[in-house]
Automatic annotation (TrEMBL):
Domain SusD-like N-terminal: residue ranges: 113-247
Alphabetical list of Pfam families matching this protein: SusD-like_3 (PF14322), SusD_RagB (PF07980)
InterPro entries xrefs: SusD-like_N, SusD_RagB_dom, TPR-like_helical_dom_sf
Main location: membrane
Organism from which the protein derives: Autumnicola psychrophila
Keyword line: Cell outer membrane, Membrane, Signal
CDD domains for this protein: SusD
Subcellular compartments: Cell outer membrane
Name the UniProt record assigns to this protein: RagB/SusD family nutrient uptake outer membrane protein
RagB/SusD domain sequence ranges: 349-496
Signal sequence annotation: 1-24
Similarity-based family: Belongs to the SusD family.
Entry keyword annotation includes Membrane: yes
Length: 496
């Protein structure tokens, strides 16, 4: 009887937020349930609840379900919906019919039944579910009064949870537009049916801004929120996300202000070497990474970077269009992907092929780094007419690349990647230069498709690549299973 009730409640909670099939037989690994927190509240269990909220950002294999390729849940699939969709990446070095649904996304010949959309929806809403659980617990004075947790730790953990909820909703609203907005744990059928509808994109953006402001107010004013656990969400990450949200909403002055606020703390700077943010041996010892998921080998539950396993099977390859985008002698190409060796170095965390094929590899997933933030500020400055100031920032990125040796150890020619500032570029030319720089600097970092969409050039660029991209593809389709489970209360995006 107890097992039946557990399954029934699981089905209720899945009505609008995740694909149920993968979760009926076992909980997602690492999950601390609300029941455990309520009946056995300890500082450790509450902390574990927050820790588990990070897990859905990982590339670890089978976080939800077991080898459910047909649900798109084997691993988090940002690389598919961003890098492959944008034309920077192709599924495999040698094209074949394996996981043909990925090819459908690459060509924009997909339907709402494609597993890729169910996968990212499932990961994000499972993350939101865990964040809601953690936030509810940390705001429950009755529970907290019974455990040994100091106010500073409580505030930090709460700030982390607010940030993570905002982060997951940021991904959802960019992929799907308006989505169901859940800010409390679901408890019963009534709760499930009450949220079985879409909130507007404006409402989702408002919640993201509210959560990020809460995070900023709660997180400690230091580079690492926890010196012993530097992977945790920090004040810098929250400020950076506020800047990114402003940028995506074309609030240029706010984006500049938030980057300036971040820079005033002096937490971050460009590393001397381009590859340092991705090098496994430099994790949490360099100056540029602002937020990343901390993959770790040899632990249980698993925390390794499972994307490396897919790379061992021939997945994750550059397109010719991406390769050709790099200027002559730009060392960043070799650090992103070594073509002859078929090694996506940036995603492996090494330049020697180590970890390729290892589903438990330690390479972190970098979500925000300082070079990206600088390019946000440069873009906002150029958009507001401060062309030269914006180009000077772009040149900082180019200079760092020019001063990085080639991946084979040879020197990068001193005349490579010449500066843009002082060359008399118009605003339109400066924006084009900025867009080029973002592509080559941030290649394979799951930024490109969102960039193309927000710049309003996705249809032009992707059609020229031969993709079947239409204007309505600016939003992906809501997974058909979610519409079906809602009884039609969730409406499909236009065009699908």
């Amino acid at each position: 009887m107890k097992n039946y009730i557990v399954k029934l409640l699981a089905m209720v909670c899945c009505v609008t937020v995740i694909s149920c099939e993968a979760y009926l037989d076992e909980d997602p690994i690492g999950l601390i349930t609300q029941n455990q927190i309520n009946t056995e509240p300890t500082a450790a269990s509450i902390t574990s609840s927050v820790n588990s909220t990070y897990q859905l950002l990982s590339s670890t294999l089978n976080i939800v379900g077991q080898w459910n390729w047909d649900d798109g849940t084997v691993t988090r699939n940002d690389f598919l919906l961003q890098d492959i969709a944008s034309g920077d990446m192709q599924k495999k070095w040698n094209p074949d019919g394996d996981q043909a649904w990925m090819d459908e996304i690459a060509a924009f010949n997909f339907t709402s039944m494609n597993p890729g959309f169910n996968g990212i929806w499932s990961y994000n809403y499972e993350g939101i579910s865990r964040a809601n659980q953690a936030i509810s617990t940390l705001n429950n004075e009755e529970v907290l009064s019974s455990v040994q947790m100091d106010a500073a730790t409580k505030d930090r953990l709460l700030g982390e949870a607010y940030f993570l909820r905002a982060f997951y909703y940021f991904d959802l609203v960019n992929n799907f537009g308006g989505v169901p907005l859940l800010t409390e744990p679901l408890k019963d059928f009534a709760d499930a049916y009450n949220v079985a509808n879409r909130n507007s994109a404006e409402e989702v953006w408002a919640q993201i801004n509210e959560d990020l402001q809460e995070a900023v107010s709660l997180l400690p004013a230091q580079k690492y929120s926890s010196s012993s656990e530097p992977w945790r969400v920090s004040l810098g990450a929250a400020l950076a996300m506020q800047a990114k949200v402003a940028l995506f909403q074309e609030n240029w002055s706010e984006a500049i202000n938030k980057v300036n606020e971040l820079q005033a703390h002096n937490f971050y700077s460009l590393n001397d070497h381009y590859f340092d943010p991705f090098d496994v041996s430099n994790e949490y010892q360099e100056n540029e990474v602002i937020f990343s998921y901390n993959h770790v080998s040899g632990v249980n539950p698993a925390k390794g970077n499972g994307l490396a396993a897919l790379m061992g099977w021939g997945f994750v390859a550059p397109t010719d269009d991406f390769i050709n985008a790099f200027e002559e002698n730009d060392p960043r190409l070799g650090y992103t992907v070594q073509i002859d060796e078929q090694q996506p170095n940036k995603l492996l965390g090494s330049t020697d092929g180590n970890y390729k094929g290892n589903e438990d590899s330690p390479g972190n997933k970098v979500f925000i780094r300082y070079a990206d933030v600088l390019l946000w500020k440069a873009e906002a400055l150029i958009q507001t007419g401060e062309v030269e100031e914006g180009l000077q920032i772009v040149d900082q990125i180019r200079t760092r690349a020019r001063n990085t040796q080639m991946v084979d150890g040879s020197s990068t020619p001193s005349d490579a990647l010449p500066n843009y500032a002082g060359t008399g570029m118009s605003q339109a030319e400066a924006l084009q230069a900025l867009r080029h720089e973002r592509r080559v600097e941030l290649g394979f970092e799951s930024q490109r498709f969102n960039d193309l969409k927000r710049w309003g050039i996705a249809e032009e660029i992707l059609s020229d690549m031969g993709k079947n991209y239409k204007d309505f593809n600016n939003l992906y389709p809501i997974p058909q299973g979610e519409i079906d489970r809602s009884g039609g209360q969730i409406e499909q995006n236009t065009g699908y």
